[in-house]
Amino acid sequence: MKLDCKAASRLISEGLDRDLDFSQRTALRLHLLICTTCSRVKAQLAFLHRSASRYQGGDEDDLPPHH
Question: Which of 11, 32, 49, 55 has an alpha carbon within 20 to 30 A of 2's alpha carbon?
Answer without folding.
Answer: 49
